[in-house]
Amino acid sequence: MTTPNLLAGLSSSHARVNGRNVPDLTADFRRSPALCEPGDLRGRVVAIEEPDAASIIGMMSAVWERGAVPLLAGASGHETPWHSNTPGSQLVPDAVSSEWDLPPACALVQATSGSSGTPQLAMRSHESFYWESFAYTAAWGPGSHPLVHCVRLEHSLGIGITLSALLAGRDVFHEPPIRADRLSGFDDRIGVLAGTPATLRILNAALSARELRVDTVFCGAGNLDPKLRSMLEQRWGTEIVLGFGSTETGGALAGTRGIGAPALGAELSEVPPTGAEPFQLKVRFPHEVLGYVGKSGSTHLWEFPDLVRRGDDGQLEHVARITRTMRTRDRTQALAHLAETLKSMDRDWRLLEPSGDDTWAPCLLLEGEPLSKTDVDRIQDTGGPAISGTAIRSMLRFPRNEVGKVELAKLLSANNDPHLPSTLERR
To answer: Which neighbouring-strand residues pair with 391?
Structure first.
C-alpha cells in the first residue's frame, strides 16, 4: 500500500468531510506556505495545525501528494523543536526530520495518548488505515449513512475513525468538543455516532434538541460507566459498541461486550482456549505501527495495559485497566502531582480500575514496604480527585517476568487475595 493508493481510495470513495469532498480540499491546500519549498519533499515532515476537520484532511492529502509525511502531534507546542510563532501548518526543519529516519512506508507520525506510559511519536503505515477501516466496518456494521463525532483529529481515535469512514464511503461530520453544538449539515439519519465517554456525553447534549435515528453508537474505550451507558442507550435506542481506539490497535478489537472478537487480519497470541481467569492480551496485526520516532526496531506484538478473559460464549471480555495514567482529563493534573509524590517515595505503582459490572473497588497498588499513616495522608492529599474512593494498598514485590516486566494478570490476582499482606486505607 502506497500514498497514491491511499489518496486514490479517499478520492474514489466520494465521501465528504463537513460537506466537502477530498479532491477539492486537497486543491485548497496545494499552495499552503508549508508546501511552498520547491522540489521533492520525500522524507520531510509537515506539522499540521489547522482550524477544522476539513482543513486537516485537506492539508494531509496535499502533504501526501508532495511525498511528505504529516505530523499530528500538537504542532504548536513550545517544547517541540519545530515550533515557531507563525500559526498554521509548517514544514519541520530538515535537520529534525532527517534525524527521525522515517521508513518509506510511513504515512503519518502521531503522538500516542500516553495511556499506557509516556506519550511517544508513533509512525503509521499507509496500509494501516485500510486495515483500520476494515476493522471499524466490522464493528459498526455496513451502511452509507454518515459518521458524526467530536473527537479531536489530533488524537489517534479521531483521525482513525475519520479516515476509516471516508475510505468506506461514509461522509463525516465533525466539530471539536468546544463547538459540538455547531454540528449540522446531516439529515435525521446518522450511521455512526462515535467518541470517547467524555465526547459521547458532549454529543448527547449537543444533539438533544434534534429528532435523530442512529444506527450505531460506538465508544472507543473498552469500558463505559454504567450510568452513562444506560443514558446513551435509552436516548439513542441502540446498544453501545465498545472497542479500543489506541494508535497501536486502531480500535480493531471491538464488539458489543468489552473488546469482543478480533476483526479481520488480527492474530491473537497466548490466548487461553478456555477458562475465566484474566490474562494480558497480546495481539499481532498486519497494520501494526511501524515503530516510534527515536527508537530502533519495529514492534509487532502489542501488550495491552488491560486484562481480559474469555466469556462463556467465547467472546473476550474486558476485566480491568491497569495503568500508570488515567484518561479522564479532570483528574490528569491531580494524577500528575500524585506521580511526582510516588516518584519521590521511590515506589513503583499501578492504578487498578474495575470494568463494567465488577464490584471490586478501584485500587492504587504500590510496591514496597507497608505504608505509614503519614505516607497514606500524603498520597491522598496529592492524589485528590484522581484517587477519590480508591483503596490504597502496598505489596512487598510486584510479580515480574524474567526480564523484570510486571505481570499484570498475576498482579490483579494478588490484589484480589484477601490474605495479601498489605496496608489498606480508603479515602
So the answer is: 363, 426
**How many Å apart are CA 167 and CA 11, to the nearest integer?**
9
Least trusted range by pLDDT, from 201-205, 288-292, 342-346, 356-360: 356-360
Across 49-63, 74-88, 328-342, 358-372, least confident range: 74-88
- Separation CA 40–CA 423 (nearest Å): 62
Q: Which residue type sits at 167? A: L
Residues 361-383: pLDDT tens digits? 778 888 888 888 898 899 888 88
Domains for the chain: give ranges and CATH numbers. 3-318 (3.40.50.12780), 324-426 (3.30.300)
| Cα 59 to Cα 11, 49, 64, 113, 388, distances in angstroms | 14, 9, 9, 22, 43
Which residue type occupies 387?
Answer: I
The answer to whether residues 135 and 204 touch, using CB atoms and an 8 Å cutoff, is no
Q: Grid coordinates in use for 151? A: 473527537
Phi first, then psi, for residue 156 (nearest 5°) are -60, -40
Instruction: Provide the residue type at 388 as one letter.
Output: S
- DSSP single-letter state for residue 182: G
Kindly report, residue by residue over 137-165, the tens digit of the pLDDT: 777 888 889 999 999 998 878 898 999 99
Quick one: cell of 319? 476485566
